[in-house]
Please model this.
Amino acid sequence: MKHTVVALVEDKPGVLNRIASLFRRRGFNIDSLAVGTTHEEGISRMTIVIEGNENIADQLEKQLFKLIDVIKVENFTNQNAITRELALIKVKASTQNRREILDILEVFRAQAIDLSTASLVIQIVAHKDTIDALIDNLSRFGILEMVRTGRIAMRRGYTTTTDEVIEYFDDSSKFHSQIGRLSNGDFPFVSD
Amino acid sequence: MIGADIVLESLKKANIDTIFGYPGGVVLPLYDRFPFHKEIRHILVRHEQAAGHAADAYARVSGKIGVALATSGPGATNLVTSVQNAMMDSVPTLFITGNVARNLIGKDGFQEADATGIFMPTVKHNYLVTNANDLAPTFAEAIYIATTGRPGPVHIDIPKDVFLEDAEFNWPKTINLRGYKINDEVDSEQLAEAAELINASEKPIIFAGHGVIISNTSNLLKKLCEKGDIPVITTLLGIGSMPTDHPLHYGWMGMHGSYHANIAASNADTIIALGMRMDDRALGRFADLNHNAKIVHIDVDPAEHDKNLKATVPVVGNLSTTLPSLINNIEETNHADWIQWIEKIKSEHADSMSIPNTDKLSVQYVVNSIAKENKKNELVVVTGVGQHQMWAAQHMNISKPRQLITSGGLGTMGFEVPAALGAQVANPNAKVWSICGDGGFQMTFQELATIVDEKLPIKFAIINNGYLGMVRQWQELFYKENLVDVNMSQPNFMKIAEAYGITGIEVTKKEQVSKAIIQANKIEGPVLIDFKVESEGNVWPMVPAGASLSETVESAKEL
Model:
């Protein structure tokens, strides 16, 4: 079964390396991984989709949390949560069949965002299954290129994943969030 | 203050007075400042791997953090084995490496290696410091991480020009990591449930792991087992957490553990696993360890729960806080029937782990004699990895925590020589005996020079059978006696002793053993004894790889 795990991590060099290395080393089978910033400076948010049984998801959560730079881990699988994915799909589209494609897009609430005489670029934000179904429908026209972001997720309602994390944060923990960046600009050359 | 001074001030601030290291290009600015920080003793090793193992053993013996220092590139990569060794056995260690100057990072300069990247999967955490102002807070954080929770190695990589940069010594008052919180609260609900299981059990057993020793809780372990009348077996690294003469001590479990310990583990109805990570060498085939037992697993690292073996009641917490509460919750009782059952098996299978009754020079006899000829409370045993390690664990009556220093998880041959160095530095008054394999010794004996320099009176007992004994045992038993590349030629160890200016003693006969050990103990400096032992002995009992503990065999006939 698929598990959606959300991790809040320090936004600093090497974090992605640590996490990727952990997945590889422990043999976790990752379906998708989406990383981005949050509204809190210094915190990145990762959404990880992993294939495996309960036990594997449990280990993934614990091993992730063991990393010093991982602040919080939450399994969204059995939670009331919204999950979305964005895809850009470039399909072959002639002036003859363009209308037909646009009709399909309407059904899936997708949009055409670029156009040429022989192609269309389509954008869709939806649940993974919806995107898969759209792709199914488009394949007969000929897909030229496709890119997907991987799943992102958020709890429904007022509660958030970030609450307590922000509470913990004070001046003394700022140091850890900032250390490790190579400064910009040239250093005086040191000859050995 | 320049970065180099900040590094050394930081170490002093953390009460670190000993580091093991090896200089090189990019750490020269640091070495340049050593003479101005006389409180710190730098021990110059002969290979960086040895610096790491020495720091590791120093930490195991003293309970304090061990520190190793190396230069960039090859210095750093030579450390890797010792870092992983400390990781696998949860040893609080700090590894410091220099790196090329900041503007040269990523440019493949001379002696550049991506140490931060290479160390990443082998450490609890690591840092690349890019600003001298960050040095003091980084050291404070690193030492905090290495020594708290489940201890482990932390690595700090410092570019050469950061050592030279001027900055403030801004040691932080508090450490606050939002991704690393030490939770000292006792999970009383889980503990109550654990106690309920234990109180209801008729055949309970305690597995005592390295965690008991790391958390200094062997006195609590004793209280727990005495109150609940629960037999205790230990893991290899848990040896020493219970005195061997305690009536509830039933040896150690695992691939070469006691027959009765393995059988008791397989037949208990409740397993209480304390501070252990459910390793395959200790538990055999996980699926068939014990089909009926309920498992209480107390460990400070929640990731160890359900990793290899599903726990009925997992308890997260340090043993020093969880055990007192567990002891309060369990009933005073006795399990005479169950203990008698184990006793019966123990007496029926007493021969499976005995000293062979032979005139030949057996390893068991040698290591047992070393234990006998030394005072119990003075002896520290350091071993390498292989047959001699197993026999030392079986026959040396290790009865105190931190008395057996051995590479458990990683199984690093060559550990015995530099680890003995670290052990003796940590405890100058101990009689440190390094039980060496003839193979392992040849991996790291360059450290004899360090040992002579530092005037450390370590006694090396080379268990010389002319074979990589454990590999030979496996080839004999599981590869149809097809012995390939295990028969090694040996140098003349007496001449090696002579070359390093230390006393060498050769022992070929049983009757020379005690005399040689007594003689070695009388000599003030280091001594090397070459015990030319019987060449083809096998370690018994044995749980064949992939078998369960209940399938423990006592001789080759049973395979």
